[in-house]
Structures are given as structure tokens and as C-alpha cells.
Amino acid sequence: MIIIGNDPTREPSFTLGNRLGRQIWGIIYIFLFRFSPRPCHSWRAFLLRLCGAKLGKGCHIYPSVKIWAPWNLQFGDAVGIGDSVTLYSMDKIRIGDYAVISQGANVCTGSHDFNTSNFQLFSKPIIIGARAWICSEVFIHPGVSVAEGVVIGARSVVIKSVSEAWSVNSGNPCKKVGVRKSSI
User: Fold this and answer.
1) Is the N or C terminus of the chain more exposed, i.e. has fewer CB atoms within 10 Å?
2) Could you give the angle at the alpha carbon of 109 between the alpha carbons of 23 and 19, nearest 5°?
3) Which of 70, 34, 36 is CA-nearest to residue 53?
4) What is the DSSP letter of 66?
């Protein structure tokens, strides 16, 4: 999908197939997804599945969610994606059952290598465990995994994986600040 070793000032950074797929998704997003009524979660899930997303039952994805490549999404059952979330899915984004991504969060699987002369584009997958809660305006870096039941506090910046299940984490950079009681 990413073209390696190119000159991004003169050449595309992505394969033709990827660029065409994103154009088709962009048309679907503008005309059928973005302006669908808020309660029409099943309709938006249908559109995402049509474009290659793998979604469990009962996912609630709001119409203002920005999705880069739906074919890189894999959600469990009853996942909630709030208003104005950005799913920059250059690579896979996997979200477990009953996880919530709150409004304004940015789940970003791609960046640039600033140590290369062409700022080479790269991507790494992100995994968010079941029953995790990513609060408002959190930024999650490429390659991060968040364990089951973890809470990431509002406006946190997650640059490293959070491996302790049912922990509460917050800050920039994000670090453990407490423990959450498991309700399962």
C-alpha cells in the first residue's frame, strides 16, 4: 500500500489501487455516511462492511467519524465510536468488544520517519482491547496496543503500549494513575 523509497514531492506515496479505493470510499462517505441521521448506526455499519470493514454486532459509529480506509478496520461487538473521532487507518485498527472511543480522539496508524531524506511514510497497527475506554481527544500513536479494560484519560497522548489490563492511564505522555475495578 505504501510505496517505499519514493520522492513524495514528485511521486505518489500510495499504490494506485489504494488511492482508487480511498476515492470510492470518499464518495460513499460524503453522500451516504456523513449526512446519515445520527440513529442510523446499522446503515453506517452496512456501508463500512460494504467497503471491507469487519464489524461485530451492534456497533455504534457516529456520522462525523473520519475514516481513512475502512478495509483496515476490525471491530468486535458493541463497539462505540463517538463524534469527530479520526480513525487514520493506514494500517489495521482492531478494537475489542464493548470498547468505546470518545469524541475527538485520534487513532493514528501512520507517520513519517524524520530520519530519512524523503520523510519516508510508514504505518503500524493499533490494537485496543475489549471494554477499554479511550476518552475525549486522546491521541494514540502508531503501533500502540491498549489492554482489556484500560481507561485512557481525556487529552492523553499514548506513545507506548499500555499492557496492564484494567488500569487507568492519563497524561502526556500517558502513564498509569490508578486501577479500574472489573465489572465482568
Assistant:
1) C
2) 20
3) 70
4) E
Per-residue pLDDT tens for 108-150?
999 999 998 888 899 999 999 999 999 999 999 999 999 999 9
Q: Considering only CA atoms, give the Rg of the chain.
A: 17
- Supply 93's cell numbers: 485498527
Q: How many CB atoms lie within 10 A of CB 130?
A: 18
pLDDT above 70: residue 35: yes
Query: For residue 78, what are the contacts with CB-CB under 8 A and spacing of at least 6?
Result: 56, 57, 58, 59, 60, 97, 98
Contact 41, 59 (CB under 8 A): yes
User: Does residue 145 contact residue 125 with C-beta atoms inside 8 Å?
Assistant: no
What's the predicted TM-score (pTM) here? Answer: 0.95
CA 48, CA 107: separation in Å to the nearest integer? 17
DSSP 70: G
In angstroms, the Cα distances linking 19 to 24, 125, 140 are 9, 19, 24
Longest distance between any two alpha carbons in the chain, whole Å: 54
d(CA 92, CA 100): 17
Least confident interval from 15-29, 38-52, 70-84, 107-121: 107-121
Q: Which residues, in sequence order, are CB contacts of 94 under 8 Å at separation 6+?
A: 74, 75, 125, 126, 127, 128
